[in-house]
Amino acid sequence: MMSDAGERMLAAQEASQRPDFNGRVYSHASVYAYRSDGSGEPQVYQAVSESRAGPGGVRETRKALKDSRSREERIAVGHHIGGRGHTVERRRNTGTGQQQEDHHYDGIDESEGQQFDREWDRRAARIAFKGGARRRRRPPRRSLSAPSGHHGRQALKVTRLCGIC
């Protein structure tokens, strides 16, 4: 049964790449790992990946990562139309505070980036993607992690998933 569901999901994602595609596809995957031996800070690893696609090859991808062991936080948001795309990736080291932002372009030049972003916003609005410029201003995502001094899943509190998003 799982392989059948997986095959259908792959077929839907492949279909969403065709120019004549007239549907919508959404996928979400997340991983959360928590480890504590009781002596020191717990180790937390969180990763989230989302993708949504609509008619005309309009697609958005979102990936976030938080790793307390490496003290790394990352978030990447990609907007794509067919074979063209613009992805913004932000990284932060929570130990040093060092931050970095990179822009990756697929099928377009850097000079076409702003024009492409406007085109993506227009097309996304037409197919009712709740997002674009408005989504970029929303409050940060929240996730659960245990406060220091507590072990396992006791006394959970809300913390930010990614301090740079």
Describe the structure.
- Residues 59-76, 115-124 have a biased composition (Basic and acidic residues).
- Residues 35-153 are annotated as: Disordered.
- This is Tox-ART-HYD1 domain-containing protein.
- With 165 residues, the chain is α+β, with helices and mostly antiparallel strands.
- The protein has one domain (2-160).
- Helices cover 20% and strands 41% of the residues.
- It has three helices and eight strands, in the order αββββββααββ.
- The protein has helices spanning 2-16, 113-126, 133-136; strands at 25-35, 43-53, 58-67, 72-81, 84-93, 99-106, 142-145, 157-160.
- The strands form two sheets. The protein has a six-stranded antiparallel β-sheet with strand order 1-2-3-4-5-6.
In terms of topology, how is this protein built?
Layout: H1 2-16, E1 25-35, E2 43-53, E3 58-67, E4 72-81, E5 84-93, E6 99-106, H2 113-126, H3 133-136, E7 142-145, E8 157-160
Antiparallel strand pairs: 1-2, 2-3, 3-4, 4-5, 5-6, 7-8
Question: Can you summarize this structure?
Answer:
With 165 residues, the protein is an alpha+beta fold. The chain is built from three helices and eight strands.
Low-confidence stretches: 132-165
**What is the rounded Rg?**
19 Å
What is the general shape? flat
Mean pLDDT: 79
Number of strands: 8
Pattern of helices and strands = HEEEEEEHHEE
- Secondary-structure class: alpha+beta
Largest sheet: 6 strands, antiparallel
Which range does the strand content fall in? 35-45%
For the largest sheet, list the strands in their spatial order. 1-2-3-4-5-6
Distance between the termini: 37 Å
Number of domains: 1
Helix count, per DSSP?
A: 3
The helicity comes to 10-25%
Family: Belongs to the MLF family.
Biased composition (Basic and acidic residues): 59-76, 115-124
Pfam families: Mlf1IP
InterPro entries: Myeloid_leukemia_factor
